[in-house]
Amino acid sequence: MTQFDELARRYDDTAELPWRKHMEMPTVLGVLGDLAEAAVLELGCGSGVYARAVRGRGAARVVAVDESEGMIAHAKARERDEQLGIEYLCGPLPGAEKGNFDLVLAVYVLPYATTVQELTALCETTFAALRPQGRFVALPIHPQWSDETDYYLRYGFQLTSDQPREDGGPVTLTIRSGDSEVSVTARYWSAATLEEVLRTAGFGSVEWRQHSVSPAAMAEYGEEYWHNYLARPHAAILDCQK
After folding, report:
1. Distance between CA atoms of residues 98 and 131, nearest Å
2. What distance in Å separates the CA atoms of residue 174 and residue 87, rounded to the nearest whole number?
3. Each residue of 152-211: pLDDT tens digit?
4. Please, how many CA atoms are within 13 Å of residue 225, restricted to the half-sphere of its CB?
5. Distance between the two ends of the chain, CA-based, in angstroms?
6. Which fold has domain 8-142+189-241?
7. Phi, psi at residue 135, to the nearest 5°?
8. What is the pLDDT of residues 86-116, one digit of tens each?
9. pTM here?
10. Contacts of 205 by beta carbon, 8 Å cutoff, 6+ apart
11. Which of 2, 96, 206, 215 would disulfide-bridge 68, Cβ 3.0–4.6 Å?
12. For the sheet containing 61-66, what is the strand order?
C-alpha cells in the first residue's frame, strides 16, 4: 500500500479548491493547448482528475497510470459510471506503449523521486513514451516555494520542511479539509537539477510556465487572496519537448 491509497476521494475533492479550480487546472490545460486527436499519457494520475479533464478537451486516447492500487480502483469506479473511455493502469507503463503518445502529463510526480537516479529514470521513461516532437508537461515543487509555515494555509494546505533546501530533501505536504488533514512526503529538486535531468533524458527544450488567474476568479476572490500563491507558487509548470 502506498501513501496515496487512502487519499483517492479526498484528492478528487481538491479539484474544487479555488486555487486548483480557478488557477492551477486552467493554467495547465492552457499550457497543454489543443488536444484534439492527441494520444495522452498521464503518469501518477491519482484519482483521475486531470485524465478526465484531458479527455473532456478532446484527446482521442487517454492512458492514466499510477502505482497506487487505491487511486486506480477509485478512478476505475468513476470510469465505470461515466464511460469516458479512459484506460487506467496500476503499475509501470507497459513496454509496448513506447513511442505511442503525443503528450505526457505528470502532475506532482517528479517530487516523489527520492534520488537523482530515480528522477532521471522517470524522465527517461517519459521521453521513451513520446512520439517525435512530443511534449512532457510536469508539475514539480517550485524551487522557490515559501517555507513560511502558514504561507499556503488559505489555499487549504501547508508545505513544510525541517531540513536544508537541497536536492532530494523531504518536504511535507499537509492537505487540510474541515477538521481532517492528511500528509504526504515529497522531495525538493532545484531548477538546475530538474533542467539537467530533463536534458540528460533527451528533451531538447525545457520551459518554465507561469500560473495565471482569470479576471473572473480574480474579481470573485480578490487580488489579496491570490497574491501569496502567484508570488511564491508551491508548484512549477515545466513544458518540455522531445
Report:
1. 8
2. 30
3. 999 999 999 998 899 999 999 998 766 777 888 999 999 999 999 999 999 999 999 999
4. 15
5. 34
6. Rossmann fold (3.40.50)
7. -120, 150
8. 999 999 888 889 999 999 999 999 999 999 9
9. 0.94
10. 240, 241
11. 2
12. 87-90, 61-66, 39-43, 101-107, 130-139, 237-241, 205-209
Cell 498521464, located at residue: 42
Per-residue CA distances from 14 to 8, 11, 37, 117 (Å) = 10, 5, 28, 31
Contacts of 180 (CB under 8 A, 6+ apart): none
Q: CA dihedral defined by 229, 136, 141, 59, rounded to 10 degrees?
A: 50
Give the C-alpha distances (Å, rounded to integers) separating 154 from 11, 93, 133, 145, 227: 18, 36, 39, 15, 11
Residue type, 240: C
